[in-house]
Design brief:
It is built from nine helices and no strands. The longest helix has about 55 residues. It has one domain. Helix 3 runs antiparallel to helix 8 and helix 7 runs antiparallel to helix 8. By secondary structure, it is an all-alpha fold.
Length: about 270
């Protein structure tokens, strides 16, 4: 088990920080930065999986907070929807983490894989989807739907984790009718809440040494830089740019989940 930040050689540390920067950029645009950052941490010699998971969340919370603030300052998303959705997602994440202790995430992965492939195909063949915000619901029904989605995706984050930000964008665009830019802004606020919840869980319930504080803070700095750049680029380039990055990240997520399903059931 890795004992701390000082145990890493300079090349390994540099590669992790590059992965953290790239993850922060991807996460700021469409979510899914954990697909880059978590495998980089798992490749570190001597690191335990629980250490990698906890340190990944610790680094990510800096990136999601930075990109959430950047979006909030530049496009001013509707916080009347985003904040209740974030709070409900936080509760969902706690519930998902509790279920994960008794029911393994692999039970749900085939269903999630099928759903994400269906949404990716739907998005690919509907080029106008997500170009403009055309909300499907109004008032209390809109808020109730947002909170329901937040609860479900927060539960997924606590149970399985990878791709939570991308699932939030999927739900907000295809389920609620937001444009990609507005959806990405709201997704960052919600994802920030679930990341903070995960950090609290690891800090309170995990054994000592699970959170690698030095590495997590360094990773957080790299994530912040990537998150700031990604959010600014997304705002500058708009919905079409986000749509293409979204499709690329969702394809990567589908491949990752597909490999997991194969290894867990057939390998």
């Amino acid at each position: 088990m890795l004992s701390g930040f000082e145990a890493l050689d300079p090349l390994t540390l540099a590669l992790i920080l590059v992965a953290g920067f790239a993850a922060g950029w991807v996460d700021a645009v469409v979510g899914g930065g954990g697909l880059i950052q978590l495998p980089a941490l798992l490749a570190v010699p001597g690191i335990a999986p629980v250490q990698a998971l906890a340190t990944n969340k610790m680094g990510s919370v800096f990136g999601t907070t930075t990109s959430a603030v950047t979006y909030a300052r530049r496009i001013r998303p509707d916080l009347r929807t985003a904040i209740p959705m974030a709070l409900v997602a936080l509760a969902g994440a706690f519930g998902g983490a509790a279920v994960a202790t008794v029911l393994p995430g692999r039970v749900f992965k085939p269903i999630i894989l099928a759903a994400i492939i269906a949404v990716a195909l739907f998005t690919a063949f509907r080029p106008q989807m997500g170009q403009y915000t055309q909300l499907r619901l109004k008032g209390r029904r809109h808020l109730a739907a947002a909170c329901g989605l937040g609860l479900a995706i927060g539960f997924y984050d606590g149970l399985i984790g990878p791709g939570t930000g991308s699932f939030l964008v999927i739900a907000l665009v295809s389920g609620m009718g937001y444009a990609f830019l507005e959806a990405s802004a709201k997704a960052k606020i919600v994802n920030m809440a679930t990341n903070i919840g995960a950090i609290v869980l690891f800090a309170v319930f995990a054994p000592g040494g699970t959170l690698l504080w030095g590495l997590g803070l360094a990773l957080g700095a790299a994530n912040m830089c990537g998150g700031y750049l990604g959010a600014r680029m997304a705002v500058a380039r708009g919905n079409t740019f986000i749509r293409w990055v979204f499709l690329a990240v969702v394809a990567a997520l589908a491949v990752k989940l597909g490999i997991d399903v194969w290894n867990e059931n057939f390998a």
